[in-house]
Amino acid sequence: PNILLHQMERHHAAERHLYPEVIDALKKIKEENPGVIIGAVTDGKASPLFMTFTLAPYFDFVCGWEDDQGARQKFFVDLAKSDDSAQLSWIYEAARYKYAELKDLTDLINKEMISEKGEIPPGQLSYPATYDDLVWIHVGDDLGYDVGGSARCGAKTILADLAPKYGQTSRHRFDIGVEEQPAWATSSSNELARRRSLNEAAEALVDERIKYLSDLPEAVNNILHKN
Hints:
227 residues, mainly alpha, three-stranded parallel β-sheet, two-stranded parallel sheet
């Protein structure tokens, strides 16, 4: 019970401190792109679907870091051995699969293809070989992981390189040495060097950058018009 109360308060606190432009941006994206499916890829237990009074109405699914324990373990092993590529593809493929499931189920309902027993006709889902030809856009604030990881799975990317008013710290996290890191930081000098290398490699994979969250709908439209 205490854990559940903690998680509830954590999400309520996130709602209280939500950037004011977020809801308007999501609402505009939904209005301008009927049928769009919005999901969250998270490296923790936070979920917009639990943010009942703010984000929940705008998100269709969540793919969490702990959804696949085996792949998560493999990622950490691979990352420890790699100096140039974050093996994050599993979580983005998992998110893409959740999207495919949701879209196929929606199509089945729209076409009245679900049987009277509520069973889904076999062979409808296509993972991981083929998906529809719609555009997949990933938005994130981490060059190496958000941009690099999702782009390797075929996503178009939007880097949230936000203005100072947002108090964003992620973009500066790996620009300083070990001795300048916060007291709570645990990154070694080797890890910092590896992350800088990942970030540099991901720079070329950025499709759009935004400084303000209110610019997100325009960035999405820019990518859609190019595709």
